[in-house]
Amino acid sequence: MSLGMLVERWARERPKDPALICEGRTISFGDLDKSINRVANGFQSLGIVRGDRVAIMLPNIPEFVYTFYACQKLGAVAVPFNTMYKGREISHILRDAGAKAIVCLTNSVQLINEVRSETPDLEHVITTGERTLTFADPESTVFVQAILGKSVFADLDDAYRTIGHAMLDAMVGLGVTNAWYRHRGSVRAEGHKLAGSLISEIEDVYIVNVLCFRGSIDPTDFLYALSVPPEVKDKAVEPLTSIEEQTGTKPSVEEVRDAVVAGLKKQLGVELNAGQLTREERFGYTKQRSLAHRRTKPPAAPREPLWPRIKRLFTGKK
Amino acid sequence: MAGSWRLIENLAGDVADVVAMPAAVAEGRIAGRYIMTANATPETVILQRVTQKGIIAGSEVVVDKEEAARRDIDVVRQGKAARGSLKPAGTVSLTELMAASSDAFEAVKANDAELSTLIYTSGTTGKPKGVMLTHTNFVAECEVVETVKPTKPDDRFASLVPYFHVFGLADACVLAMYRGNTAVLIPQYHPRTFLKVAHDTGVNIIMAIPSQYHHLILIGKRRSREELPTLEFCFSGAAPLPPRAVEAFREVYGIMVTQGFGMTETTSAASVNPAEKQKVGSIGVPCPGVEMKIFDDDGVEQPPGRHGEIAIKGPIVTSGYYNLPEETALALENGWLRTGDIGYRDDDGYFFITDRKKDIIIKGGYNISPREIEDTLTSHDKIKEAAVVGFQKKDGEDGIRAYCVVEEGQSVSAEELMHFCRKSLSSQKTPDDIRFMGALPRSATGKVLRKELREGYSDPRLITREHE
Fold it and tell me: Are residues B217 and B284 in the same domain?
């Protein structure tokens, strides 16, 4: 019996019965079979054929089931692996299996990008899920973002290379002399990540997001808020380092800014002039801010006791 | 490309700014093109720093908001991906791929020996190897579990184990579809989340690993046992569940956990310690259709009571390691899979594991079982967990190093522990070095990764510089 036929049978016999339940959503055998078929046809349109290996780096979500059974229907070989794997662990599996495609969460793209030069068989990175996660810390993280026309660069490789080298120049400028850059990847020192970049695209625009670590970051607090059990804590976060840990001194945000500006100037030959959001952009910004907050309930702000507030209203004093 | 770009600085912002500012600029830029504003958006660089800790999470990430608030962490959500929306450059969106494809497809008819899946073993030794599993292997495993727990059409399976692990994949992802049952998916496991989901969906079968049973026991003790009224069958695997945990779970939930023993190479469970005739400390009896034997180093089968390596044969056994004919030949002889586990069989046919071949420490010519030393250390009432590995002492001699996790709120010195060991172990088995840790490194399924504790171990998560 082929595993690809399992769901087909129930879709035929009991199409309305529940096959999957995930986060309040129920998917019937009929719908599951259709989704699997869509993925199988999608794989085929990407040139994936019987016998090809398809890596799956997903948690237990419906897309895991779609992808796994799409492979079975197609006769492709599924290569599922641990979503907590990083660096060499991922590159070893992708290379050893000769995976032609990987299906992963959007947040894993940076990790895959970074090992892509070692995985020549990998043709497609297929992403799913709304599980991206970024930690921001006043003492550590600095975000360098850029909204650029695609025509600034020759192609995506050029965009990654240029931004990556600008960041590398910035890090070296800040005294991290052992920093190095891997194509489409992060600026690293001693194997640990010092700054990571991800380029997203929409229409003819690239949105560049670079996260760099000025001072050391302790993820403990964040992981508690995500209910990550302590025994997997070390595995949940990529090995990180910071300018402070590499050089012994933590640069100010202004120093980081100057180094980044110098790096961009060197790599792109552009001047950066201080500016502000335009009036239209401010409208968009206000909307985007409220969207970002509305998607979750904001934590209840500790409220000031009533009396001092009233007193202040009348006296104007603190 | 020369010219001048705009630099926007926001050095006292928050995580909402980190999301909103570039989105606003990109939005304005794209909209501007359509309404043909005179001033096109210039190329823009934004530099941001936050003044409060924050998490930017996708809409499907479960964030404990109370915990975040208690730790002064601001939480914002990233926008949802939709057709034509922002995505990492150079990737394909699964949603878009599915939307553009037909929903009709007929499954290929796989041959008996055709590969279904490659699963890389966590690799207690060396680099992970790809275990080849065929369609036939998976179907055989389903038949095996069927004999242990026959199907009811309305069974609801929850796997607390990830589907990327052979236990979750074979005994939940495939099994549920083989039987036509409902699979309940839990993307981000947390005992509280699981209890709620199990309660809401009427889960009656769970597949979980020992550490998860421990969580459920802890949480169940504090709440009423009405938590899981529909629960009928619990299957544990990947690592042994200690007898006192089996008993504690029964006390709280009224169910004896059925323990399976298996490997990636056996498509998950090969033997089962049945709930009704459970033998404490045993890995159980071989499942129907599976053979298990004990062999000595010369490949001679051993009678009950005699130690040797456990070997397994049957339709669930892998055809080998991907592209590794030599390793395959070493592990598989005439269809017998050498498990690397040392143990014996009793007169009733129950198997017991006493050690793992590859973890044996050789010191002064003696084979020493790390497990024996670990058991001694954990018998000390202040030691919660221990892992023992071999290392090379400065003088080049072989030594034994123990990593200990102390019970919460307790403290103990290395000297005291060495003294404690000396009382019950011979001097060559007493650790030469004792180190303390907050937690032992474990694999996704709770196995202690002794490999990571060995000297000269290099973290495979690191990405190192290539030779240029």
Answer: yes
